[in-house]
Automatic annotation (TrEMBL):
Domain DUF4124: 14-78
Keyword Transport carried by entry: no
Signal peptide (residue range): 1-26
Low complexity compositional bias, start-end: 63-92
Keywords in alphabetical order: Signal
Residue numbers spanned by region Disordered: 59-117
Biased composition (Basic and acidic residues): 95-117
Protein name per its UniProtKB record: DUF4124 domain-containing protein
Matches recorded under InterPro entries: DUF4124 (IPR025392)
Amino acid sequence: MQRSSAPCLPALALAALLAAPAPALAYWQWRDANGHMVYSDVPPSTAAARVLRAPGRHAGDLQPAQAAQPADAATPAAPAAKAPAKPTAPTPEEAFQKRREASLKAAAEEARRESDAAERAARCAQLRNYATGLQQGMRAAVAGPDGSLQHLNSEQRQAEILKTSANLEKHCS
């Protein structure tokens, strides 16, 4: 039996797949003031010592505004007018917490809506059952002023059927 030295087709396909460049990930990488490595999808605040990776940039190309100024440029020659303070960008942790809170709030609102819909469906089912029972002539009673049960006569039954039908149209349509 002779062996061929040519690689098989699945091996070539696997090699081509592994050699293809991976899609670029849009994330920031920097070291914080404590020297810890930070990875985030949000740019760092100016407190970051050095940005190591930024989306679309090579490592080290992006420096925080404080580090990019030369030492002799620290003292301005002419006093500048005070600019209004710009709001600082949220830290990655604050941005994450804000997104997390919004997600939790949306999930809680969705759960509340689903719960309300389930309760409404249950109330409507009970009301439909009651209306069906009234229309089929089942005995029905209401509580009297003293708490005792008083069975409905035909006029009261007709009024109760109309009232129940109106409630069904209003709340369960």
